[in-house]
Specification:
The complex is a heterodimer of chains A (268) and B (198). Chain A is an all-alpha fold. Chain A folds into two domains: 1-60, no CATH class; 62-261, no CATH class. Helix content of chain A is 76%, strand content 0%. Chain A has helices spanning 8-27, 33-60, 63-83, 93-118, 126-157, 159-167, 172-197, 205-212, 217-249. In chain A, helix 1 (8-27) packs antiparallel against helix 2. In chain B, strand 9 and strand 10 (192-195) form a beta hairpin. Chain B is 29% helix and 27% strand. Chain B is of the alpha/beta class. Chain B contains six helices and ten strands. A six-stranded mixed beta sheet of chain B has the order 6-7-8-3-9-10, with helices on both faces. In chain B, strands 2-1-4-5 form a four-stranded antiparallel beta sheet, with helices on one face. The chains are: A mainly alpha (268), B alpha/beta (198). The A-B interface holds A 158-171, 178, 252, 254-258 and B 43-47, 60, 63-66, 68-69, 72-75, 77-81, 90, 125, 128-129, 132.
C-alpha cells in the first residue's frame, strides 16, 4: 500500500484552479476573490503545519503529547460551537455547555472505538487515536452546535407559547419538549444525509483516501461504515445531551422560563 | 383567599394585596407601570421576593405547576404551541360551553391557529384557562381586542365565576370595565399600589 508522493509542482498545478476561481470572481464582480485566496492559503498552511505536528507526535507515540493534541482540538471545537450560536447562554455557560457536551460525547465514542473495534497498541497510539478523535469531534461539534442554536433561538422566538403552557400548569419538560425535539432533529439531519448519500452520491473522504492508498475497496467500505456509525452515535449523544442541559439551564426549579440566562443577541 | 405579601421584583414593588372569595380587584396604570410584572409574580413566572398565599398554602411550598393551575394567568398576548385550537385544551370536551358563552362555536376547535382573529385568540386563551377551573384568575387586559358587545359577553362569563367564589385580579386600561367588574379599584403608580380615587 503506497501512494505516489505529490510534488510541489503537482500542488502548484492544482492551485491554478484556485486562481481560475479568483479570476472568475473578478470577472463577475463576485467580490470573493480575496476570500478565496486567503482561505486557500490558510488551508495550505494549516494542513502542512498539522502534517508536521502529527508526524512528530506519531513518531513519539507519547501519551502526554497525544492528550495535549486532543486538548487543543477540543478547545478549538468548543470555541467553534460557542461562536456559532446566534443566541448564546449568558456567562460561562455560553461556551461551557457546548464544550462540555462536545467533549463528553466525543470522548465516549472515541474510547469506545479504540477499545473495541480498532484496538491499537497502545490504546492511545496517536496515529489511530488522533485521526479518530478528529473525525468524531467534527461530527459531534456539528450536532451539538446545530442543536444548541436551535434550542436557544426557538426559546427566545416562542416565549409566548412556552409561557402559555407553563401558566396552564405544564411542567418545564413538557413545555419545552417540542422545541427540544425539533432542535435535536436539526442537529442530526446532516449525519443522516451523510449516511444516506454515502457511496451513491459522494465517496466519503476517508474511504477515497484509503482506496487511493491501495486498500481493498470492500475493506475500505467496512471502515467507512464503522466511521459513519461512530459519527452518528457521537452526534446523537452530543445533541441529546446539549438539548437536555440547555432545557435545564433555560428554566428553573420553579418551572419558569429564564430568558434572562440568554446573552443579548449578537452578530446577526 | 389570596394574600400577596410584599411581592418585589427589580424596581417593582413591594406589592401587598388581599383578595377575598368571589372578589374582583382591578388594577389600572400607565404602560410600563408594572401591571404585567405584578401578575407574573403572582403566577410565579418570574423570580421575585415576597410570597403569595392561597387559602393558607404558600406558593413556594407547592410545585409551581400545581400553583399555576389554581392561580391561572392569562397573558395580554396569547401563546399557541400546536396547530389546531382543540389541541390547546387539556380536555377539549370542556371547551364548547365556555366557547359558546363567549360567542365562539364548537367547530372552532378544529380550526388552525393561523386562521383565528386577534379577538378569537384572546377569548380562546381565556377559555383555555377557565377550563382548568382555577381558584384565582389573573387577567391581563382580557378584552382589549374585543368590541363592546363581545366584551360584555366575556364579562358575564367572568361574573358567573365570581359568583362561584373565584377571585379575579383584572388589569385593564378601560376605567368603565373596572367600574363594571371590580369591587375595589387599584392603580399602579411609581411602583406602588394605591386605591383609585373615584
Amino acid at each position: 500500500m503506497s501512494v505516489p508522493a505529490l510534488s510541489v509542482s503537482d500542488l502548484a498545478l492544482a492551485a491554478m484552479l484556485i486562481l481560475a476561481n479568483a479570476a472568475l470572481s473578478l470577472w463577475l464582480s463576485l467580490a470573493i476573490a480575496r476570500d478565496i485566496a486567503v482561505a486557500a492559503v490558510r488551508a495550505a498552511v494549516q494542513l502542512l503545519l498539522v502534517g508536521l505536528v502529527l508526524k512528530t507526535v506519531f513518531e513519539s507515540s507519547s501519551l502526554p503529547l497525544t492528550l495535549l493534541i486532543a486538548a487543543a482540538m477540543f478547545a478549538a471545537a468548543s470555541y467553534e460551537v460557542g461562536s456559532r450560536q446566534e443566541r448564546r447562554l449568558a456567562g460561562w455557560w455560553g461556551y461551557g455547555l457546548g464544550a462540555g457536551t462536545t467533549v463528553l460525547a466525543t470522548t465516549l465514542v472515541t474510547l469506545f472505538a479504540l477499545f473495541t473495534q480498532l484496538q491499537p497498541q497502545p490504546w492511545y497510539a496517536p496515529h489511530t487515536a488522533i485521526p479518530m478523535l478528529g473525525i468524531v469531534l467534527g461530527s459531534v461539534m456539528n450536532g451539538v452546535s446545530q442543536t444548541l442554536s436551535g434550542m436557544t433561538a426557538a426559546v427566545a422566538r416562542e416565549r409566548n407559547a412556552i409561557e402559555a403552557r407553563l401558566a396552564l400548569g405544564c411542567d418545564r419538560a413538557t413545555a419545552l419538549r417540542p422545541l427540544q425535539r425539533r432542535a435535536i432533529r436539526s442537529g442530526l439531519i446532516p449525519i443522516v444525509n451523510q449516511m444516506s448519500a454515502a457511496g451513491l452520491i459522494t465517496l466519503p473522504g476517508m474511504m477515497t483516501g484509503q482506496v487511493l492508498a491501495g486498500m481493498d475497496p470492500v475493506e475500505a467500505a467496512k471502515y467507512q461504515i464503522l466511521i459513519l456509525f461512530l459519527l452518528a452515535g457521537g452526534a446523537g449523544l452530543g445533541a441529546v445531551a446539549a438539548a437536555v442541559l440547555a432545557t435545564r439551564r433555560l428554566t428553573d426549579e420553579r418551572h419558569r422560563l429564564r430568558l434572562d440566562r440568554l446573552a443579548p443577541a449578537s452578530r446577526h | 383567599m389570596l394574600e400577596l405579601d410584599s411581592l418585589r421584583r427589580l424596581a417593582f414593588g413591594p406589592y401587598s394585596l388581599s383578595l377575598g372569595d368571589g372578589e374582583c380587584v382591578s388594577i389600572e396604570g400607565g404602560s410600563g407601570s408594572g401591571k404585567s410584572v405584578l401578575l407574573r409574580m403572582i403566577a410565579d413566572l418570574d423570580p421575585h421576593e415576597g410570597q403569595a398565599i392561597l387559602d393558607g398554602r404558600r406558593c413556594h411550598a407547592m410545585p409551581a405547576p400545581s400553583w399555576r393551575r389554581l392561580v391561572a394567568y392569562v397573558a395580554a398576548e396569547s401563546g399557541w404551541w400546536a396547530e389546531s385550537v382543540g389541541e390547546h385544551f387539556e380536555d377539549s370536551t370542556r371547551a364548547p360551553p365556555l366557547m359558546a358563552a363567549m360567542g365562539i362555536g364548537a367547530e372552532a376547535l378544529a380550526w388552525p391557529i393561523a386562521r383565528l382573529s386577534t379577538g378569537e385568540r384572546q377569548r380562546l386563551a381565556l377559555c383555555r384557562a377557565l377550563a382548568l377551573a382555577p381558584r384565582v384568575l389573573l387577567l391581563d387586559e382580557p378584552t382589549s381586542a374585543l368590541d363592546h358587545a363581545t366584551t360584555l359577553l366575556v364579562e358575564a362569563v367572568l361574573r358567573a365565576r365570581l359568583t362561584d367564589g373565584v377571585g379575579i385580579i383584572l388589569v385593564t386600561h378601560d376605567p368603565a370595565q373596572a367600574g363594571r367588574m371590580a369591587i375595589r379599584r387599584l392603580v399602579l403608580r411609581g411602583g406602588a399600589l394605591a386605591e383609585q380615587a373615584t
